[in-house]
Amino acid sequence: MNMSVNDSRSPALATSTAINYRWRDARQHLATTISRRRRTSAMVMACIALLALLFRRSNYDSTILMAVESSVASGLIVGSQFLLKRFPKLDPKFINSLCIALVTIVPWLTDRTARIFGLGTAMEIVVLSSLAWVALATAMLGQNLRTIGISVICSGFLTLFVTCIADSRYAIAFAYCWGILCLWWLIANHWEKIETCAAVDIRKSSQHRLLMIFLGSLAFAVASWSIAGRIPVLKRLQAELMPTSGGTRDNDIFATSGVGDGEVLVAAKENPQSFGAVDTDFFLESHEPSLFDVISEQFGEPRTKDRWESAQSLDNKNLKEQDSRVAEGNRSSSQSFSIDREPPKTKKPLNDLKSAALMFWIGRSGISLATERFDVFKSNEWKKSSDDAVVEEERKEPSPLVIGQRTWFQHPRFGRDRETQPYVGADRESLKFTKFRSPTIPTHNSLQLWHIDKIDRADFFDLSDDDCLSMVDRQFVPDYTTLHFINSEMDREWIERHAITQSEEPYDSDLDQSIDDKLLTMIERWTAGKSPGWKRITSIIDGLRSDFEFDRQFAPDSKQPLLEFLQRQRGSDYMFATTAAVMLRQIGYPTRLVTGFHIKPDGFNSLAAEKAILADDAHVWLEVQLSDDVWIPLEPTPGYQQPLYRVSLWYRMRHAFPTLVSIAFGCAAFLLVIWYFRRSIFEAYSRLLWFAVGWMDDRMRIGWLLFILDTRSKLIDQRRPHNVTARQWYSGCLNRIPTDGQFKFSRFFDEADQIYFGSSKQLSEHGQQALRSLWIRLTSERLERDRA
């Protein structure tokens, strides 16, 4: 006999079991969501710390070095995940731990390799780079929440440390971004712990968190503002949070000597000296180059003239004996510059920039530093007008100006009306002397202020009539002296307004008529259709840069070097500058020749953030006078960077208006083409994206599939409603396929629900095939056809 037992508890037991399963799946899904959210936040914070470090390194480090290091480290992280995806049997814990270890040593290996090619960086920067990549790797590859917390601690320390040592005021933005994200991370962790204890329903809500973040940030800002500048301890902490190597109370980026009293009082080098005026009539012979030697070596020796002068010999008894003789190498410079020169001798390439450097420049690249200026050109020779004058040249002393307990010296032009001068802005730059045997100090055209350690006497310096700075009563600037400059930039709009006025006095030229005719022909050709003013000046400069060839080894053989230069259209930079100066004088603009050094971008010492100035950097250019005591530098030699001018945003937009209009029409046409072929473009993009998501897990690929299908629905103007599931919306498109295919896709959606809302983590083989079929075959055209 068969008996059926009807247990009244069976329905209740089944319902309780179902609820328990649903409760367990919901808790597991919530825990997975929380883990993913914490990991993503930690990854973003690590990226902020890494960007802050790269921003700090960009001021002095090699871009190639940073790019190689970033590529190798990120390649290891992505490669480890691709390896785990390709070979599921590998141990994820072992692979991730190995990847973190390899990422840690990547900055060290990169730095050691870069030092072979003369790059590399400081040791502490390598340590910070290792910490940054470890923070990012542990956030992405960490196996538990404790590891993710360690990543947050590392990224926070790195962000605050880099912000403290940064020179730019914009670096504080990284600390603010990291702090706000960390505040959100802490609040989210707190609320998520409460949600896991009593989770009745799962909803995405961010209003309370955003409100708490806003109120917390506001309270922090008000508290910081209320105590700012009112507590003495915080003032000292602000001044000496990151003290310099010299122990000063200022975060001075130029304090690198390791001595608290400054850069030049004591220099522990091979030849230590103390800075100060030395009164003596005797100078030991020196083999190190003077300014005269540098110019002659770089451009060639001036040709001697066949000229005899009367002379009378003297007996030895009329000569005063000296214990030491003045060194020929210590001669400062000649009072003239001849363009009739011998070709320079070929020199061997230098292997060590630091040992061969005359000076080191810390500042902008692409600018020129002047040492001498000549304004009279006769008989193939440039001279200074003061040389022909009978009266002695008046000496201009700079005026001292105390700024922050330091004495700066002010150029006479600095106190004048700014409306009459083109100088705008202020850039702090430095020049460190090593082997420059000359009292002349190379300076920029727009020098405003300068400063040397503790020197407060204005009579140490001399400003000549040609605006060249030098040290008084000294044979040369002492070795290891560091000068700090405040230089300005030229206002392009001011220059264009004042370049219209031309001199009415005729240019008195002693050149041959053939040279004058050839110059006038070139001027007419280059300035045809150009309005008087700055456009004519720049057209002459551009014509020389485009039609002539720069060749420093080429020297004219004839007695008329300027004519030979015009005929062969090639020569050294002093020939370019001389030709441009003479041509501008013929159209009414006073000019003068300038000798000095050009700061080229190459030869940059990344470890010390300075540019080595060699003898090869000697250069000749010209300046044109636009008003009283205002000379504008011009660069006619091809291959050298033209002077930089500052322009306003309105100026840029006004001159770029035709280009902007053409770009706007081009962009509009491009967008119309994109809109017309949007379906085809998106289908090509989706096919490429299929290969890109191959290393992701199945959950992420399912999410990308829903994005692809929903975007295809939008393209055919049939957007899926929010209250309709993907299974319901796309099942109508699957009715035309065979029954076995429908079963395969239905099974795929079941597996997708288990991955998203259950404990499953991976699709089956049939599910993988269905995923690929939906991704590739269910295109927007088929959706439109099947939905119709």
Question: Your description of this structure?
Answer:
The chain is an alpha+beta fold and 788 residues long. It is built from 24 helices and 21 strands. Strands 2, 6, 7, 8, 10, 13, 17, 18 and 21 form a nine-stranded mixed beta sheet that branches. A hairpin with a 2-residue loop joins strand 4 and strand 5 (381-383). The longest helix has 49 residues, at 9-57. It is elongated. The two termini are 60 Å apart.
Question: Would you spell out the secondary-structure blueprint of this structure?
Answer:
Elements: H1 9-57, H2 63-86, H3 92-116, H4 123-141, H5 145-165, H6 172-197, H7 207-227, H8 232-239, H9 291-299, E1 336-338, H10 353-356, E2 359-362, E3 368-374, E4 376-378, E5 381-383, H11 385-388, E6 399-403, E7 406-410, E8 423-433, E9 440-441, E10 447-451, E11 461-463, E12 469-471, E13 482-491, H12 492-498, H13 513-526, H14 534-547, E14 549-550, H15 561-568, E15 570-571, H16 573-586, E16 591-598, E17 604-605, E18 610-613, E19 618-627, E20 630-634, E21 645-646, H17 649-655, H18 657-676, H19 678-692, H20 698-715, H21 726-731, H22 739-757, H23 765-777, H24 780-787
Parallel strand pairs: 13-21, 14-15
Antiparallel strand pairs: 1-5, 2-8, 2-18, 3-16, 4-5, 6-7, 7-10, 8-13, 9-12, 10-13, 11-12, 16-19, 17-18, 19-20
Helix pairs in contact: 1-4, 1-5, 1-6, 2-3, 3-4, 4-5, 5-6, 6-7, 14-16, 17-18, 22-23
Concise synopsis of the structure shown:
Helix content is 47%, strand content 13%. The protein has 24 helices and 21 strands.
